[in-house]
């Protein structure tokens, strides 16, 4: 028989496993990236291209900042969004009306909104990493079809927890 204190500790452990903890930046897995993109409304048809772009531009690192580049510009986050045109350093601005530093945290929802704007106006060819590593490289694109949603994972953990206490 398991004591109440053990059950409490196990319950806390499960709570922390199921709760997303936000930090300043992180390295995403391909499946994490695909889930974030899909949750933001990106078509499943292009998920592999988007994940390949993210991987080639930043190594899936949400906090990557590169620069200075052209005209002392910097590139931010998992999509390497550039401060010359798309955002402004220290304040909102640019074509995405965003503060560049906000693209270098682990919340990539705003990054995706801006990246989709870039893609819709300039295409994937805007990103050199995509052109070099993803364009016309169908076999080299990440296979994200097998990525499960967070809901499926949480359901499996909850099932194990229920079985544990029964």
TrEMBL record:
One Gene Ontology MF term: lysozyme activity
Residue stretches spanning the membrane: none
Alphabetical GO biological process terms: defense response to bacterium; killing of cells of another organism
Catalysed reactions listed for this entry: Hydrolysis of (1->4)-beta-linkages between N-acetylmuramic acid and N-acetyl-D-glucosamine residues in a peptidoglycan and between N-acetyl-D-glucosamine residues in chitodextrins
EC assignment: 3.2.1.17
SMART domains linked to this entry: LYZ1
Enzyme class name: hydrolase
Keyword terms, alphabetized: Antimicrobial, Bacteriolytic enzyme, Disulfide bond, Glycosidase, Hydrolase, Signal
Superkingdom of origin organism: Eukaryota
Residues of the Glycosyl hydrolases family 22 (GH22) domain: 96-114
Range of residues in the leader sequence: 1-23
Family, similarity comment: Belongs to the glycosyl hydrolase 22 family.
PANTHER family: LYSOZYME C
Protein name: lysozyme
């Amino acid at each position: 028989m398991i004591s109440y204190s053990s059950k409490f500790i196990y319950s806390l452990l499960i709570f922390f496993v199921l709760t997303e903890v936000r930090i300043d930046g992180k390295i995403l897995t391909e499946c994490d990236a695909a889930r974030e993109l899909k949750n933001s409304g990106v078509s499943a048809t292009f998920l592999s291209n988007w994940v390949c772009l993210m991987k080639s531009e930043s190594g899936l690192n949400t906090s990557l900042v590169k620069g200075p580049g052209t005209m002392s510009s910097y590139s931010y986050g998992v999509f390497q969004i550039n401060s010359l045109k798309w955002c402004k350093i220290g304040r909102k601005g640019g074509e995405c009306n965003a503060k560049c530093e906000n693209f270098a945290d682990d919340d990539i929802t705003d990054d995706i909104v801006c990246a989709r704007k870039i893609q819709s106006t300039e295409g994937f060819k805007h990103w050199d990493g995509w052109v070099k590593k993803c364009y016309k490289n169908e076999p080299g694109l990440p296979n994200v079809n097998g990525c499960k949603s967070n809901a499926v994972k949480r359901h499996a953990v909850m099932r194990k927890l229920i079985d544990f206490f029964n």
